[in-house]
Design a protein that fits this description.
Elements lengths: L2 E9 L4 E10 L27 E11 L4 H19 L1
Parallel strand pairs: 1-3
Antiparallel strand pairs: 1-2
This protein binds zinc ion (ZN) (3 copies).
């Protein structure tokens, strides 16, 4: 089965993976709908694979920090706390 390979950055601090670029890994099977070797156009064959396998994460960069999302959440939380203390 074909699957997406997602290149990205892995943040060790929060354990999140941030995808930067993804591409389809071709399984080269003639009975796979997603393969460039797939034999049928407008395929109606029951034996053909119609599902992609789960995407594979490929961490090409490792950051010993928290990801952008987590930083934003932390900042938002900090902002809320400051406003509550002020009022
Ligand atoms: Zn395939
Ligand atoms: Zn087919
Ligand atoms: Zn994170």
């Amino acid at each position: 089965m074909c699957h997406n390979v997602i290149d990205g950055r892995y943040h060790t601090e929060c354990g999140h993976f941030v995808g930067m670029h993804s591409e389809v890994h071709d399984c080269w099977r003639p009975n796979c709908l997603f393969s460039r070797r797939h034999l049928h156009s407008g395929c109606k064959s029951q034996s053909c694979i119609r599902l992609m396998a789960l995407p594979v994460k490929n961490p090409i960069r490792i950051s010993p920090t928290t990801c952008g999302d987590c930083i934003a959440i932390e900042r938002a939380a900090a902002a809320t706390t400051t406003t509550t203390t002020r009022s």
